[in-house]
Amino acid sequence: MSADSRRLLIVFAVLTAAVAAPFLFDFVRESRRPVLAEARVVTATSSDPVFRSGRRRVAAGDEVRIALAVRIEKAGRGASWLSPVKALAIDGETVQHLQSDAWPDRARTLRVFWFTVECRYVGGVLTADNAAERLSYQTYLAPEMGRGLLALRPPDLHNDDHLGETAAAAVDGAGTVRLYARAEVVEDAGDLRPLQGVTSLELEHLLDPRFPAVLRGAELGAGVHPAAGELFGLPGFEPAGETPAARDAVTEPAFGRRFSELVEERVVVSSSTLAAVAATGRAAADLSALAVLGELSIGDERLSVGGRPAAWGAEVMPGDLLLDGEHWLVLLADNGDGVLDLADTVLHSWKRPPARTTLFAALDPEASGVMHLRAAP
């Protein structure tokens, strides 16, 4: 090769390197940027300050905090967790993490979209043919939770105004709420298209104990199991069937689980399962084993037994059950006059989410009497 050819080749190589250098630099820089690999919703309470993934049961009055933990991968450095919380546990294992609410790349920003996961339907009648559709859950954007890794507050219910009003009747925020989040990395907070994005567990894992959910009980009164509070906010359906066994089997074709099992999973509730949980704490409790105390007559806005008003503390007690046909009601409290009347407070669910309301609002206006039952002490 002549000297001129060598010089030309060297010049070409230098020019090629000069042109390629910025692209190579960008490639190396991009390959070393942190990458979003996973996101998990975590919750903590005032009694358990460790933020944990998965389902959490919360006692009445216990404060709940919600956050997102994201797993980050870096080329050549492995993976690590990032979350603004002090103590973090994923799938039951305490994990070391970077305690921060900022993305570890100053040129980019991390944003979070929070969602609730709620049933698309409020309630009605459930059959084997419509169970899959009527008990389908979907995500609802929850802007009140903010856009950060640490949620501003627990969410409201969003699938229906009526459902939200019903939930507001609960005590101390009782009820079940499921959570979903999407984390995105952007160059600017206002960017429409993210550079990276991951979500927490998808809806096909809804019945998995790892799926994030807060189940808060309630102190509804003496004789009422606190677990009944966890049923607020759930859709209220009456399963169709001629026998209790047939009604309990109505969800098996669609979900492979009995109706009572789905109540235990806090997916749905019915009038009878609400009564069962209130009386015993178990959705599958045999209500036929309850003590039948007789019939209470309805008249002059009062309920009577043997021609005399049913007195609180004597004939009726908090936690007693009333039965009108297939409609169950749980007695909660007297309005102050000492006898059972239509202004007294009850808990019920009839083709709708559970509500704490008056006996007047819950009963069929045409009812002339109800059966009176009580769980064994």
Description:
The chain is of the alpha+beta class. It is built from eight helices and 23 strands. The chain has an eight-stranded antiparallel β-sheet with strand order 18-17-16-23-19-20-21-22. It has a seven-stranded mixed β-sheet with strand order 7-6-2-1-4-5-8, with no helix packed on it. The radius of gyration is 29 Å and the shape is elongated. It starts with a helix and ends with a strand.
Short description:
With 377 residues, the chain is α+β, with helices and mostly antiparallel strands.
Give the tags.
single chain, 377 residues, alpha+beta, 8-stranded antiparallel β-sheet, 7-stranded mixed β-sheet, 19% helix
List the helices and strands and how they pair.
Elements: H1 3-31, E1 35-45, E2 51-53, E3 55-58, E4 64-74, E5 78-83, E6 88-90, E7 93-94, E8 97-99, E9 109-119, E10 123-126, H2 131-134, E11 137-141, H3 161-168, E12 175-186, E13 196-199, E14 213-216, E15 236-239, H4 244-248, H5 252-255, H6 259-264, H7 271-280, E16 291-299, E17 302-305, E18 308-309, E19 321-324, E20 327-333, E21 345-348, E22 355-358, H8 359-362, E23 369-374
Parallel strand pairs: 2-6, 3-14, 5-8, 10-15
Antiparallel strand pairs: 1-2, 1-4, 4-5, 6-7, 9-11, 9-12, 12-13, 12-14, 16-17, 16-23, 17-18, 19-20, 19-23, 20-21, 21-22
Helix content: 10-25%
Shape: elongated
Relative strand content: 25-35%
Helices and strands: which structural class? alpha+beta
User: DSSP helix count?
Assistant: 8
The low-confidence parts are 20-31
Distance between the termini: 104 Å
Number of E strands: 23
Give the averaged pLDDT, no decimals. Answer: 90
Q: What's the multimeric state? A: single chain
The biggest beta sheet reads:
8 strands, antiparallel
- The rounded Rg comes to 29 Å
What topology, given as strand order, has the largest sheet?
18-17-16-23-19-20-21-22
